[in-house]
C-alpha cells in the first residue's frame, strides 16, 4: 500500500508539472460510454509518416492494407479480395468493390496505385520491402504489380503496416503528407502533441462496424505511470507492462491481463566489423554458448518471454528441424575463446594483457530493454567477459551503431511480422541491406536470401531458408535472447479483445465495453 501511495504522489506531482507546461487538453475519462482510452508506450505521431510511427495507422486501423494476416498469421483478404502470380515477376490483385475512404472518395485501383507510389517515394524502407518496378490499374478493381525480380514474398510484404492505403487527401498539392485518411473502421480526428491521438468510428466502413464509438490513445511513456493509469481508472487499456505489474494486476479481479506470444525477438546484434573484437566469429559463437537464456528470461522478465536459442521461434512455419539451436555449453565456449587466443586468468578472459571487454548499447524507451541488457551483461561477467553497458534513446544508440562504435547493441525487431522470412533476413542481414549496421558479410547467406525470395512456398523455398537460418546460427552475427510474449491489461469492463500474433494490430473494432 505504501508503495502504491508513493507512486500516486509521484504521479500527482508529474501531472501538476505537466499541466503547467502544456496547453489545456479536454479531459477524456475512461468511464465515458462508447469510448476506449488506451495508454501507449510510444507516441503515435499521426501527422508523420516516419516508419515506426506510421505503423500506428495500421495498428489503430485508420488505414487498411491490401492483404491482412489472420490470427494464425495466414494471408486473408484486405482491400484486395484475391491475388495471383501470373508470371515470375507479375502479380495481379482483384480489389474490393464499394469501399469508401473517410473523406467520401472511392477506393479503386488508381487509388491503390497512387498510395503505394507515395509510400515508396516517401519511405525508403518501403521501396526495399516491395521491390516494385511498375504498377498499372488494369481496370477499376484490378491492380497489376511488376516486381524488379521474381518476388514470391510480395503478398506477405503487402501486409506490412507501412503499406497501408492512403486517400489522395492525405497529401497536399505538392504530394507532402498532411494527415492519415484511410478506409479503416476508425477515422483520424485529433492529435495533441505529447498527449493523445483520437480516432472515431467510421460508419461507412466496408466491414462489420465497431461497437465502440471512439478510441483515445494516450501517450504515457513512463512504464510505472501507464500501469498506474489503469489502476486509477484513468485509462481502460494499457500495453507493454513491466513484469512486476503483470503479476500484480493478474491477482486483481478488476482487471484482465493478456499474455500471449507475438512476433518479436530481443537479440544482441554483434559488430562484426573491424572496430570490434567480435569480427572474430569464434568469439561470437562463444558468447552464444555461454549465455543461459532460461536464466535471462526469469531474471529480466519474471519469466514473461520465451528463451531464444535460434532466430525464429519454433512455431514460425518457416523454421526447420534441420536448424540447430544453441544450447548452454560452457566447455565449448571456453574452447572457442582459447582458440581465439584468450586465456582465463583470475576468472577473466584476457588476451595480450587486455581483458575481453564488450561495450553493450541499448535504449530505454521500451520497457524490457534495460532489464534484458543488464541481465545479459551480468551473465557475461559471470563467465569472465567484462562489459560496459550504456543506455540511450533509440536515435542516440543508432547514431553510434551506424558508426561502428559498439560491440553489441541489444535491439528488438519483429521478424515474423509478415509471416515470411524475407522481411528480416533480407533487410537486416544481407550484406547490401540498408539496415545492416553490423558490417557482417556472408556471401553464401546473401545468395540464399536472394534465391529464397524468388521461390513460391514449398520444399525448395523451405530448404533455402533453412540453410540461411543455419548460417545465422553458425556464423553468429547475433545472439538471440528472448522471443516476445505480448503483455497488456484492461479493465474488466472490456470484452472481445484478442492479442494479434503480428504484434502490430489492436483490432479494437471487435471490442466492447460494458
From TrEMBL:
A single cellular component GO annotation: ATP-binding cassette (ABC) transporter complex
GO biological process annotation, one example: peptide transport
Coiled-coil intervals, chain numbering: none
Primary subcellular site in the record, as a coarse category: periplasm
Solute-binding protein family domain boundaries: 74-431
InterPro entries to which the protein is assigned, alphabetical: Peptide/Ni-bd, SBP_5, SBP_5_CS, SBP_5_dom
Domain of life: Bacteria
Signal sequence annotation: 1-29
Keywords assigned by UniProt, alphabetized: Signal
SUPFAM superfamilies: Periplasmic binding protein-like II
Subcellular locations according to the entry: Periplasm
GO molecular function: peptide transmembrane transporter activity
Protein family membership: Belongs to the bacterial solute-binding protein 5 family.
Record-given protein name: Oligopeptide ABC transporter, solute-binding protein
Upper lineage: Bacteria, Pseudomonadati, Pseudomonadota, Alphaproteobacteria, Rhodobacterales
